[in-house]
Amino acid sequence: MRDKPLVALAIVVVLAAIAVGYAVGRRKAPPPPSPAAETTTAYSPADNAGAPPASGQIDAIRRGIPVDQEGEPPLMARVENTDVKRNRAYPMQPPTIPHSIDNYQIDRNSNRCLLCHARANADKFQAPPVSVTHYMDRDDQFLATISPRRYFCNQCHVVQTDAKPLVANNFKDIDTILSGQIDQPQQKAN
Ligand code: HEC
Ligand code: HEC
Q1: Protein residue closest via CA to atom 42 of ligand 1
Q2: Are residues 95 and 162 in the same domain?
Q3: Which portions of the chain are predicted below pLDDT 70?
């Protein structure tokens, strides 16, 4: 074949053209953002004037404030120190704490909660002693002292505050559900 060198040259030229085109294309992308586009997407305080619908919010805890703006933090909730116990929503719910726990230290050396709530001291302080589950290890063996996995009380028990719920909740406890089931057949019989 006489044209062999010509064909080889053509291939080299085509490959070079592709390489140059690729390099130029890469340098061009990504296009610099135009200042006009930026100003149109930015929020102005006026955008937030009307109360946005709470239902469309991704995160209700933001209370309708756009993600790129910082809202006023709500006031700190007040801890109720009334000694009035709240109902438990289900039998194994850790009861909420009906007294304040300010400065109650819990660390390696001391556990202030157990001063009153350990079985041995409960009578002196008229506190309900921790239940037997607090003395059980993960294999359900009963220990002489509080189980290490129940040592840090605040892991499960929280103080009662006057905070309003941040998101709607239609939880029904088992007694409400059971009473509904008992009612239904009676209504059908009528
Ligand atoms: C000075 C004693 C004392 C200390 C310390 C104490 N408590 Fe209490 N606690 C009580 C008493 C008394 C009650 C019974 C209700 C009342 O009078 O407030 C109670 C009630 C409770 C209840 C409610 C139990 C139920 O059946 O509803 C929980 C939960 C609780 N405390 C957790 C804690 C935790 C957690 C700590 C440590 C952060 C703690 N307590 C520290 C005395 C104490
Ligand atoms: C791993 C979670 C967890 C930890 C940690 C924990 N508790 Fe509890 N607690 C519970 C649950 C769940 C209940 C209710 C069911 C039960 O009695 O086991 C309860 C019940 C109680 C009760 C009511 C007992 C009764 O008979 O009504 C008291 C008082 C209590 N806890 C105090 C404490 C104290 C004080 C500590 C820290 C030493 C503590 N708890 C650590 C989960 C926990």
Answers
A1: 127
A2: yes
A3: 1-3, 7-10, 12-58, 181-190
Out of 86, 107, 116, mutate this one to test ligand 1's pocket (max ligand atoms within 8 Å of CB): namely 116
Residues 130, 119 contacting (CB under 8 angstroms) = yes
The torsion angle over the Cα atoms of residues 27, 30, 36 and 40, rounded to 10 degrees, is -170
Task: Kindly state whether residue 58 falls inside one of the protein's structural domains.
Answer: no
Contacts of 94 (CB under 8 A, 6+ apart): 156, 157
- State the distance from the centre of ligand 1 to the C-alpha of 124, rounded, in angstroms: 13
Indicate whether 19 belongs to any domain. Answer: yes
Q: Which domain holds residue 14?
A: 1-30
CB 176 within 8 A of CB 87: no
* The pTM of the whole model exceeds 0.85: no
Decide: 99 and 81 in contact? Cβ < 8 Å: yes
Give the DSSP letter string of 94-123. PPPBSS--TT--BSSS-BHHHHHHSTTTHH
